[in-house]
């Protein structure tokens, strides 16, 4: 697996409603923005950080901007979904002291559970609000832009309430993962600045080096080495966005030296860390056809 970043936003958030039936394959990737997937119909399994979610109608997925993921789509059925992209900074600016709009994404990441499965009553409430948001997004009459933003924030508030109040169960039907690999992924993400040699990880989790590499690949679709590099680079991008000096970014992400960091960054993102920083000031949308929307 090679995790690629896909897409930029010109606005604080975007919304797409897509219905198609075609063969599509995606590599594992991440975004610089958070993503919400509202699944309506089809036959799709979403892989997020070592877990596979077999989706049911009106399931909602919350995917943070540091989380590697990909959809696996069965083209034998029509695939309909709504996808919303939002920059974390926008949600942070729209939050208050009492209400952090990023809470649902934080909880999903901390609990390693990205699925919101609703009852019929709550599905109707979500559908109604999303329909109103979609109409406002397409509108041209007076105040449509203000209304669009207000409805989007209302949807995020609803999402937070539903997610924070839900009793998530990792034993939910249609979710598959290996508990040992999940623990290893947690360990890796908690120690990106440290020594993450395969030998040390295999010793810590009492398994042979060969079994660790084989099992990790089997469960995630990625080699463990590739996963570590990708997560370090995703963290590096987050630190760059926060304004950390480049040499400190290299140190805080576990690269042995600055030149190794630059080489890895260029190989994966086709630009240097400094070029990435400058591009943050002037980004454009990627090709929508290449997105996992």
TrEMBL record:
The answer, when asked if Transcription regulation is one of the entry's keywords, is yes
Q: Which InterPro entries match?
A: AraC-bd, Homeodomain-like_sf, HTH-like, HTH_AraC, HTH_AraC-typ_CS, RmlC-like_jellyroll, Tscrpt_reg_AraC-type_HTH
User: Which segments constitute the HTH araC/xylS-type domain?
Assistant: 182-279
> What SUPFAM superfamilies does the record tag this protein with?
Homeodomain-like, Regulatory protein AraC
Pfam families (alphabetical): AraC_binding, HTH_18
Q: What Gene3D superfamilies does the record tag this protein with? A: Homeodomain-like, Jelly Rolls
Source superkingdom: Bacteria
Keyword Secreted attributed: no
Q: Which keywords does UniProt give here? A: DNA-binding, Transcription, Transcription regulation
Tell me the protein's name: Transcriptional regulator, AraC family
What organism is recorded for this protein? Clostridium amylolyticum
């Amino acid at each position: 697996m090679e995790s690629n970043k896909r897409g930029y936003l010109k606005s604080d958030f975007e919304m797409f409603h897509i219905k198609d039936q075609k063969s599509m394959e995606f590599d594992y990737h991440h975004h610089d923005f958070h993503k919400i997937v509202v699944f309506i119909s089809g036959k799709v399994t979403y892989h997020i950080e070592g877990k596979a979610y077999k989706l049911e109608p009106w399931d909602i997925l919350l995917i943070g901007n540091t989380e590697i993921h990909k959809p696996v789509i069965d083209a034998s059925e029509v695939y309909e979904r709504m996808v919303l992209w939002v920059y974390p900074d926008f949600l942070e600016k729209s939050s208050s002291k009492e209400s952090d709009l990023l809470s649902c994404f934080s909880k999903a990441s901390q609990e390693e559970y990205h699925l919101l499965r609703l009852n019929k009553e709550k599905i109707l409430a979500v559908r109604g609000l999303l329909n109103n948001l979609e109409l406002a997004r397409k509108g041209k009459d007076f105040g449509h832009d203000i209304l669009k933003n207000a409805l989007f924030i209302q949807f995020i508030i609803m999402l937070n309430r539903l997610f924070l109040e839900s009793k998530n169960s990792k034993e939910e039907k249609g979710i598959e993962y290996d508990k040992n690999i999940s623990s290893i992924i947690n360990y890796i993400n908690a120690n990106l600045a440290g020594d993450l040699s395969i030998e040390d990880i295999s010793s810590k989790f009492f398994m042979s080096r060969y079994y660790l590499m084989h099992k990790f690949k089997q469960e995630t679709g990625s080699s463990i080495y590739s996963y570590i590099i990708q997560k370090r680079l995703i963290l590096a991008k987050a630190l760059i966005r926060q304004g950390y000096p480049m040499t400190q970014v290299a140190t805080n992400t576990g690269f042995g030296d600055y030149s190794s960091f630059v080489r890895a960054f260029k190989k994966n993102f086709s630009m240097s860390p400094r070029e990435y920083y400058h591009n943050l000031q002037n980004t454009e949308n990627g090709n929508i056809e290449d997105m996992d929307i």
